[in-house]
Amino acid sequence: MTNVIDESGILAISTRLQRLADALRKEGQLIYQSFGLDFEPKWFPVVYTLHLKSSLSVVEIANEIGYAHPSTISLLKELEKQQLIRSKKDKTDERKRLIVLTEKGKTLVNAMQPVWENMQRALSEIADNKHNLMKAIEEAEAKLKVSGFFERSQKIRQSGNL
Amino acid sequence: MTNVIDESGILAISTRLQRLADALRKEGQLIYQSFGLDFEPKWFPVVYTLHLKSSLSVVEIANEIGYAHPSTISLLKELEKQQLIRSKKDKTDERKRLIVLTEKGKTLVNAMQPVWENMQRALSEIADNKHNLMKAIEEAEAKLKVSGFFERSQKIRQSGNL
DNA sequence: TCCATATATGTAGTTAACTACGTAGTTTTA
DNA sequence: TAAAACTACGTAGTTAACTACATATATGGA
After folding, report:
1. Cβ of A10 and B48 within 8 Å?
2. How many helices (H) and strands (E) does chain B have?
3. Comparing C-alpha atoms, which of B1, B16, B31 is closest to residue A148?
4. Burial level of A149, CB count in 10 A (0-12/13-18/19+)?
5. Comparing A161 with B98, which gets the higher pLDDT?
6. If you count DSSP H runs as helices and E runs as strands, how many of each does chain A have, helices first?
7. A146 and A94, same structural domain?
8. Is residue A130 packed enough to be buried (19+ CB in 10 Å), middle (13-18) or exposed (0-12)?
């Protein structure tokens, strides 16, 4: 199991992140199935957000979950098809569509609580190590927010040595 | 900048990983451009592997970089178009195509050394924190190799409480 | 008050990975 | 030694995110 990429260090980091994200998403799908639930991991951010905030516009949801708005729209379409959400025009601003969970959606969220608890434990086993993965992600995101990868590269370059 | 997903904990981890991978890949593209190099981050795993191993078949490359072979084939097509690699039939096994870097490819690899060094430093600034991102990824991957997310979920479920 | 600018939503097309399946050589085994 | 099983490569179609652009409504300033 020699693997050049695992040894090429940090340069292949985006490859490694993507691989890991893919694997977890796919296995997440199997877990929902095994509990007999008709739910997909990619829906989690939207549904969880609406569970907490109850009524939000498309762009507000996009901001909450950190996605571009067209991605959010396509998730909302799927959830509408599943009858887990519905939407109505905002009366005070005709441009906005306010999204809410349906009764079916709320029921499903309740049914998913033990599954989420189960997943959380399994994920903790995987991610809680000497270097905690969630904390590492949070710290890296915080750094990027202060100054991006490109900006840091430019600064290093201008500093002379590279 | 309230963000439900950042606070929803580990359940949205695959979303977070993907976001981070995307951001780093895109900024990586800008960095190559800023150095005047016609190179894309997604090509790195293949090119770096061929730089170290010089002649490999399609499936061997796929295994080295941890991708499915069709993904590798489409990367190889792009690299062939860029004239960075070429291939010839293996004489002892007619099924195999042996891939090598061209002279242009080798020259580019040399030209990229300082850029890779620069990127490595910038990435270290981002990822070397209290919880080191690369190490966290490695640890999580090791755990998954022992027993996957699904398998762990099943075991927790069977243990009774969930 | 009306025009310019900004915001909210939507559509179309792209990207970078994947799985499923097909074909052609190679190896094993009955 | 011929059939079965395996391996290598390739194609087609899918997925889950993205950017760029279009349209409709709202708002602020001259």
Report:
1. no
2. 8, 3
3. B31
4. buried
5. B98
6. 8, 3
7. no
8. exposed
- pLDDT digit string, tens, across residues B83-138: 999 999 999 999 999 999 999 999 999 999 999 999 999 999 999 999 999 899 98
Strand D lies under 7 A from the Cβ of residue B29? no
Q: Is B76 within a domain?
A: yes
Residue B99 forms beta bridges with which residues?
B56, B87
- The number of folded domains in chain B is 1
Comparing alpha-carbon positions, the chain B residue that sits nearest to A12 is B45
Q: Token pair of B73, please?
A: 């084939």
Nearest-angstrom CA–CA distance, A67 and B23: 12
Note which residues in 43-82 of chain B have CB less than 8 A from chain A.
44-45, 48-49, 52-53, 63-66
Chain C positions with a protein C-beta closer than 7 Å: 7-13, 16-20, 24-27
- Taking the C-alpha atoms of residue B24 and residue B40, their distance in angstroms, rounded to an integer, is 12
Domain that holds residue A105: 4-127
Mapped onto helix, strand or coil, the DSSP state of residue A120 is helix
pLDDT > 50? residue B141: yes
> Å from A81 to nearest chain B CA?
22
Q: Please identify among residues 10-39 of chain A the ones whose CB lies closer than 8 Å to any CB of chain B.
A: 10-25, 27-28, 30-31, 34
**Nearest-angstrom CA–CA distance, B15 and A45:** 8
Match 């202060």 to its residue by tokens.
A146
Residue B161 lies in a domain: no
Q: Could you tell me the CATH number of the domain that includes residue B40?
A: 1.10.10.10
What are the start-end ranges of the E strands in chain B?
56-57, 85-89, 97-101
